[in-house]
Structures are given as structure tokens and as C-alpha cells.
Amino acid sequence: MAMEFFIKNLCLEIQQECIELQYDCHQNFMTYYLTQLAFDPLWNLFPKMNEIVREDALRIIKFAVAKMSNQTCPCIITLKIQFYFNCNFESRHQIIDVDQSNFHKRLVPLIEEIVESKPESVSQYDMLLKQIIYYSTLWRGLGNPTFEKVYNECYHATTSFLDSSDLQAFTHYKQEDKCTQLNVFAQITAGVRIFNWTCKKGGEGIDNLPMLLAQNLSEFKLDLTQRLQSVMDKIDILTSAMDYCFIIDSTAVYRLDAMHTEYKQSCELPEGIEYEEIEFFKDMIIVYRQIEVFSRQILDVVEQMENNYEDYTKRFQNCLDSFHSLTHLKAGVPTRVIFPMFIELDNIWECYQNEIVYMKRMYQIMVNLDVYIKDCSINFHKLEIIIDDRDILNDADRSVILEEGDYLEEQLFDVEIIQPTSKDFNLKELKLEILGFDIWRLVESQGALIPGNPNLGIIVFDNRNYVFSTKQSAFMFAKYPTKIVSEMLELVRKKVELITLLQLQEDMRRVQTLKQLVSTTQMAESTVAHTNADVQTELHAVEKNIDYKYKWNIWDHKRAALSLCDLSHTSSKQVNTEALRGIFSSATQTYASKDVAMQTLQDAYTNTHTPQTYFFGLRGRKDDKQFIMNLTKPPDKS
User: Are residues 216 and 187 in the same domain?
Assistant: First the structure.
């Protein structure tokens, strides 16, 4: 409770500061930003009530306002993309439930009017039937019932199974049963109209949902693929530039037995390139990688919708085939057989509508994601200077299949390695940590996302799978796995936009209370220089020295001590001081206690005279001279 209260107040203060400075700041976004910062305990964003310090709050407010001052900062853009996607990308079930709930609310007045109707005359029954027809038409959006053709078609479809006796019986149902029966009427009416539409014997106002869904899905997928390809082109250029910029030191020879081999990664800046620009390019990779991840999630949804469309189409066609087989050369079909088939047609039509609603939401998310990156400008001329006529590699080029001799060695320190030739090597089942990026190069470059090559081999550490772009980076990770993972989490604390991108929420919660992730022991292991050296001890480090007075027997020392004391010529004396008096015991004489009885005064009592009074002059007198006479005896008289 204190945590939520603290963050809420911080958001209000930050928002007020941003308003005064005319910065764009939304309270919900700021709450999301602070929850990401809270993974770093140095901010002290989750204190107890007795630990809240105003200085910490002012420090956070100053930092957040400074961040919000630059809305085009890649960090803020990435966080806004994550916040928008998390708020709007919901499951199919949630989106459809909300849409159906909103649609049902618009029909509530009509439903209440139908349910509460108690017709008595013929005109009132006709009005009730008209209301049911309106509801049945709006139930699946099969046209506008105010149009004459649509109304007439729906009227004939409804009256084909609902006569006047059924309508009178409907008015005597309970309200709950009326609502259920009304939905059944609407389903049957919709099924009848859809069947007539497929037979080209009606269908006024009914859209061809199967065809519209198929066309929109194909166009949506094409548009999404093109947008994703545009993002990937930028990612390939930026990643290649960072890969060529951060060079691994090749002075050390990569050998399995070289236990003390160390590799370092350094940044080589071409002429005309500043390090601030390199930092910007690294952050832009994060922005576009986040767009890529979300776009691929939407693409997976579109592919799932295509599969659903095929299933619905098969069900729809099978239902129509069943209709034709039942009605072929038959004068009539029992209602218990045909009504469930009409309801099935209505359910399939509802599935088509739900897919369109879901697709509309996904398309809206895709379009809005592009809004966040439209203002991002990249200096491609600077990137060309860094690449310098070298190849621009994409993710597929980096995952090229290698020869068997280029794999990681099976025994590399104490870590487990899954080679491509192993039966356990299955990229579809193996989950790669940090989305398959090279963790060592990420730490060494302080934020550059360089994809790893799974075909080089997968290192398993702490039941997690890591891939690397080079043998050198894999060697260094295998040598210091715990230290590199801790340094990666420490880096993510500083670059909070990586938490959602690399899916590290659970890891960050696990270390949320630890202020120091990289221990001094781990730092010492990686910083101490090792070398081989010869050490020769001296033959005689101490010169020869013999003590002829040395005696090993303790009784010899005791005899020497007694001779030094000269006890035969001394006398013993005793002196007692006040301080030592408490050491000695002393005795005192007391009298034995005995029982003694005491006599108090006897209990006694006294008798007093009863008080007696007399009112004189109450009889026979007409004046006001009455008075009270005291007739009580004095105490001294008996």
C-alpha cells in the first residue's frame, strides 16, 4: 500500500512539473516508467512508510522530468511503444467480449421493451412482432430493419416459424425465459436469412463476410509484411555498423587449454564519428527491435486468423451441404432437425464477425506503432562511414550453417554445450535467452544488440540457453558465466527499456532487493592478471645460532625460579584491607521469631432516642402561626 501511494504521488508531482515546463507526460505512462525504474533498488521506489525520504523523491522527480524533456529520445520512444502495446494488445477472447458487451448495451432498451410488453389487442401484438423483427435483424447486423426490403425479408423469415399462438405464449413467459427465447428467435431468423442468401433467394443488406474477411486478411498480412521488412532493413544496417564498430581484441590466441586467455571488446570510431552517435545508434536498434518483436506477434495473430478462417469456411460449407441433403426432394423437414442447423449457421456467421473485430484491433495497433517511429531520424551517411563498403548482414546471414570443425568445443570449462549435430539441438523447442542476442557483447558494448548464431553451438548455463556471435564471446561467457549474467542484469537496470524487450521481468524481480549484483569476488576473478613464474627458496634463510643456555625441561626453569626467590630468608605477613573484607565470611546472632497475640478493644454498640416532631397549629387556627415542635428526648435523659 505504501509502495502504490508513493508511486502515485511521484507521478502527480512529475506530471505537474512537466505541465509547467510544457512537456508531454501522461500519468499512466509515468506510472509504467516508474515501475520499470523500481527494479533498480538504488532509486528506493519501493520503500516502507518509515523509510520514505524526500531526497529520494526529489532525485527521481528531477531524473524523470529531464527524461521527459526530450520526447524524441530513443529510450522514451521504446518505453511508449511498450506501454501502448501492453495496454492495447489483448487476447482474442478479451477483445471480442468487450465488443459484444458494448453491442449488447445498445440493444438493452429494445430488449427491455420487448420483455416488459404485455399486449392485449391485435395492434399491440403486431407491434411486439415488429420489435422482435427489429431485434432479430440487429442481432447479427444483417441489414437495416428500417429499409422496406430488409424488413420484409426478415418478416417472412420470422413468421415462417413464429405464428400468433407462439407469440401469445411468448408473452406469458418469465422475464428470464423471454430473454432466452428472444435470442433463439434471433438465431433462427439469422440462420434462415443466411441460408437464403447462400441460395441467392434473398440476403438484402447482408454483406459477404467470408469474402471480405479473406480479402482483408491477405491485404493486412501484405501490409504488415512490408512494414516489417522496412524495419528489418534499418535493423540490418544499424546492427552491421555496431558489429563493425565494436571489435573483439584478437591479440590473444583462442585455445582450449589457454585457461588464462582473456578477450576484450573495444570501440573503434572512424574519423568524423562521435561516441554519442554510437550510443544513439545502439538505442535505435532497441527501438526497431521492439517494433520487430511486436510486429511478429501481430503477424502470428494474422496467421492464426487465416487458420481460423479456413476452419470456419469448412464448417460453413459442411453445414450448407447438410442443408441441401436434408431438403433435397423433401416437402418438409422436422423443426427439431432444421432449427439446430439454422442456429449453427448463425454461430458460424458470428465467428466471421468476431474475426473481423479482432483483425480491426490488430490493424489499428499496427498503424499506431508506426506513429511512434515516424519522427525518428537516422543519419545513414554516418552509418555508411562506419560500414565502409563492408557487407550488410541480416539475421539470416548471421545464422549461417557452419562446418563441423567450426563448432564450439564440447568441453569448454564447466558449461554444457549443445552442438548442431546433437539430437537435443532443436531451435523450435529450445528457448533462447535474451531473444538470441550475444550476451557477452551486449555487456561489453553496454547495450549493442548483436544476434548470436545458434549453429555455432548453444551454451547451457543455469538451465538457460545462450547463443553467441563468435567463439571468443562464447569462450569468455563460459569462463565467467555468473559474472556476465549479473553484469547484464546490472546493465538492464540502467537501460530499463531492455526489460520488456529481452523478457527479463522475472529475473529483475528476483534481484530487485539486491543493490550489488556483481560481487567483488567476481570482479577480482576477472581483473587479476595471471602469469607463470619460478620461485626458488633459500637454502638457509636464517644464519646458524646455537644457544647453550637453552633448557627444554620445565623443571629446570622452576628450580631456577625458586633459587631466585630465596625463600629461606623471607617471612610471610598478612594485611587485610577494606576492599578485601567482602571476601571473608562473617556470622551474626539473631533472635528466633515467635508468635505473639495482641488484644484490641471490644466491639460495642449504643442506642439513641427516636426523633419525634409535632406540627403545632394545624387545627383550629386560621392564621399562619403554625410551627414545628421537637419532642425528641435529650441524649442525657433516659
Answer: no
